[in-house]
Hints:
alpha+beta; Jelly Rolls; 2 domains; five-stranded antiparallel β-sheet; about 35% helix; globular
Amino acid sequence: MSDPPLPSPREPIQDTSWHAREVDLARVLQPGYWRELCPSLHVCDEAFQASVRPMVGAALEEVADDARERILRDGYTKIPAACLPWKSVAHRELALACVQLIRHGWNPSFLLMYDEAWSIAHELSDVVLRATGNRLNFDALCWHVDPYDDLGDDEHTAFSPHRDRQPDDSPATFRPDGTAMYATAWVALTDATPENSCLYVIPRPRDPGYFDGDDDDPCNADADPLRLCLPHKEAYQHITAVPAETGSAVVFTHRVIHWGSRGTPRSEELGPRTPPRVCVSFGFADDAYEPAYVDRTRNLPFPPLCNRAALVSAQMIAYHERFRSSARMLRLFHDAVTHPGVDGALEREYRKKVMYEYVQAAAAAGKEGTRGKGSSTRGGNNSLVGNGRKTREAEADEGAEEDEDDDAEVEDDADDDDDDDDAMDRAMDAMLDAKMNEDGDDFHDDFDDLEDGVLEDEDGFSLLEPTPRLNAGKKKRRR
């Protein structure tokens, strides 16, 4: 008997105090908060963690060796679920938890707060090591792609065609034996089909830039890697769909062009609804190419909860152009990344990148907040619209008059203004810190391209330059 359909992530929650918008860092760092959200999963459970072991055995060695050959030849492979004897991973429970997280305003990647998500990487680690020569580097993300998502944003759709890494010297990212120094393991938590967005790839033999490298400059359309792979209509037959059943793993290198399609809703007259595609991906790398985002010795196989929060928050900041967040959520992510308990946890260059991206994310959130004053927040991942959120006045008095509701709306706008200001203050702090440490020159170069009006306040003053007005209004710095 097949499992019942996953519930909709758009269904309202009963207690909005558990919504991400109402949660501070202290609560994020409490295992009990995450256990309460998804009681079927484990959080920092030593007994569960002790039960998790990497997949081993002669049969697994054959599976890994076959995967290695296919990756060398095609740049990718799919390992069927029947070949992967999962012991501790409950794929269905993880998919259900993903829905629950979305309902409560969290990005699906916060599934990484749970032990079961890390058990996937741990169980699969030896297979990937034998197949690719790479170890977990903590570049992890989770996805929930819903064919019926009608919000009009990209929050829960798959990435468009891309390579995971675009190095200046592509051949240098391959070892003498031909293996790539970076690979991704993409594990299906629900069936991934062409209807609900499975992966599509351009196999290595059909990709002229796979090994030699290419130019992904959007201003140079003639050098577009995908266009070079598909120079004529017959070449479109090279596009390969990779359907993946629950529990299977797709492993591909950093140079494979890949993407996920948008899901295709099925009309009720033709049968059951098209289910969402839920998956998790983990990056594996050779440290000679890309160091792990956090120290493996202290974080494998199960990172401490504070490091999980820091890592996922850092990923949300690093991918802010894809996973747009409100200023309030950016503040929470910044708190998680800069919390004293995780000082030094993030690899130096990765943290530098995250803080650079934070400045840009804060600017984007500030501009979005300015444009959206008095308007609905529908469509954002952190929106409480449709989740039963009420103003304080409405909670106290269901029969509140319209003017009272208007007052509450003004109060919410004021809170949003404070969040925007706080995000910009923290962005300024990040830039000042960068200029004061040994990376200051590098950061100054990075921020040059932001000076042309990108970081300006409502009066047109640059937020990159210390003006008297800005200094007078600057809040106390947080440490």
